[in-house]
């Protein structure tokens, strides 16, 4: 609306400029100026008509929704945008928001917009004389839950990601490294930096998950159902990638591989007095190895122990104001709270330096499976149109990707025991 009015104002100013120029020069309009003024007048009439139509459309919309119950919106909590270098989290359905009234409001507004779009052909476009000349428009408002679970700080967002064109390959990993550079007399033999590099084979693993069988009619009856299911599958896949980073898994050839927690080249830091002191020991150990700690990954129960740790007088060490959120940092190092990390064990170091996740095929919807109506067995890959031809009209979404885990620099990580063991 503002743009139309701005254009009209600019148009009228142009006419005034032409008129003032002729007046100042004490002459009649030239043929060219008469043509310009005619063109400007035609454009002004067109803009005025559009502005009037838009005003009428807004008045119609306000009238239509005048009796609707106001819905107070809550903040829109979205998944964090991928940040360098962990640009891994996918965007599947225009953002995932918190549950509650906000979703009702958002869904209702979308339904109203769709209803208006459907009505437009009947009246030659929204905003001309009346929104709907006669009758009514049915608004399809099928409410379904849309929020993902609360855990969104994935470890996969903090590692290197590289695209690969083959299902397997080789890389070199650093087993150990020692400093050697020193001052030497002229002519003396120079010190040699000892680095142990070991060739390792990597192979892709398929990370996959299926939705439950569903009637395909639901996709048309509930407009946001597919986005909801895909978001759930994507979330589940991200959790599986975190598990693979920590614990390894099985590749496509059936071979098991280790994650960072099972890698014997990752140094273990023993428990020392309490959780804060132990994490500070690990930080020192990394710094002595010339590694800058970039992340501390903790299980929620261990973050609770850290957040509620108190001094001798019972005051919380990290946060003296329980009414405000505790900053998820310790000694300036960001803390990631992730239920995939085993309770009692923390991971500290530079995940981006230590771990690379190789992507052969980005996670996404691969196909629909027809479910055999007799046995319930998924018997073949089908697209949506083919599925709709079968007896029970059931289908499943398969969501999968192909990834390989590499740990080129395990020396940049520390596995930390944050609870006392007997």
For the structure shown, list the relevant keywords.
6-stranded mixed sheet, 422 residues
Q: How would you sum up the global shape?
A: elongated
Helix content: 25-40%
Which sheet architecture does the biggest sheet show?
Answer: 6 strands, mixed
Integer-rounded radius of gyration = 32 Å
The N- and C-terminal alpha carbons lie at a distance of 72 Å
Number of helices: 9
- Please provide the count of β strands: 16
Structural class based on helices, strands and sheet pairing: alpha+beta
Element order: H for helix, E for strand: HHHEEEEEHHEEEHEHEEEHEEHEE
Look at the structure and give the mean pLDDT. 75
What fraction of residues sit in β-strands?
15-25%
Low-confidence stretches: 68-105, 121-147, 378-389
Description:
- This protein has helices at about 1-25, 30-65, 100-125, 215-220, 225-245, 275-290, 300-305, 350-355, 385; strands at about 160-165, 170-175, 195-205, 205-210, 215, 250, 255, 265-270, 295-300, 330, 335, 345-350, 355-370, 380, 395-405, 415.
- Helix 1 runs antiparallel to helix 2.
- It has about 425 residues and is of the alpha+beta class.
- The longest helix is centred in the N-terminal third of the chain and has 34 residues, at about 30-65.
- The termini are far apart.
């Amino acid at each position: 609306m503002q743009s139309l009015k701005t254009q009209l104002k600019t148009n009228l100013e142009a006419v005034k400029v032409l008129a003032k120029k002729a007046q100042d020069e004490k002459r009649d309009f030239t043929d060219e100026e008469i043509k310009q003024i005619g063109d400007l007048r035609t454009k002004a009439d067109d803009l005025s008509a559009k502005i009037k139509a838009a005003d009428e459309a807004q008045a119609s919309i306000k009238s239509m929704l005048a009796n609707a119950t106001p819905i107070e919106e809550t903040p829109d909590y979205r998944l964090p945008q991928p940040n360098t270098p962990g640009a891994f989290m996918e965007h599947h359905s225009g953002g995932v928001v918190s549950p509650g009234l906000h979703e009702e409001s958002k869904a209702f507004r979308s339904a109203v917009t769709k209803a208006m779009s459907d009505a437009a052909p009947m009246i030659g476009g929204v905003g001309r004389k009346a929104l709907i000349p006669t009758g009514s428009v049915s608004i399809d408002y099928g409410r379904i839950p849309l929020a993902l679970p609360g855990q969104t700080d994935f470890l996969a967002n903090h590692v290197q990601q590289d695209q690969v064109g083959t299902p397997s390959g080789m890389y070199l990993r650093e087993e150990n490294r020692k400093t050697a550079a020193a001052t030497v007399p002229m002519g003396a033999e120079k010190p040699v930096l000892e680095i142990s590099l070991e060739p390792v084979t990597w192979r892709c693993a398929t990370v996959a998950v299926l939705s439950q069988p569903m009637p395909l009619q639901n996709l048309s009856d509930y407009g946001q159902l597919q986005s909801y299911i895909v978001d759930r599958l994507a979330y589940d896949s991200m959790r599986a990638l975190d598990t693979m980073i920590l614990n390894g898994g099985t590749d496509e050839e059936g071979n098991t591989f280790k994650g960072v927690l099972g890698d014997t080249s990752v140094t273990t830091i023993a428990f020392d007095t309490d959780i804060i002191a132990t994490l500070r020991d690990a930080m020192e150990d990394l710094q002595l190895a010339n590694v800058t700690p970039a992340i501390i990954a903790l299980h929620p129960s261990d973050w609770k122990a850290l957040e509620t740790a108190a001094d001798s007088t019972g005051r919380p060490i990290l946060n003296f104001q329980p009414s405000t959120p505790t900053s998820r940092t310790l000694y300036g190092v960001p803390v990631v709270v992730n239920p995939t990390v085993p309770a009692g064990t923390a991971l500290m170091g530079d995940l981006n330096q230590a771990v690379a996740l190789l992507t052969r095929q980005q996670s996404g919807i691969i196909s629909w499976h027809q479910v055999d109506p007799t046995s319930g067995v998924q018997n073949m890959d089908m697209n949506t149109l083919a599925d709709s031809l079968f007896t029970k009209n059931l289908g499943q979404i398969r969501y999968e990707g192909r990834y390989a885990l590499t740990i080129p620099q395990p020396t940049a990580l520390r596995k930390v025991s944050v609870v006392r063991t007997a």
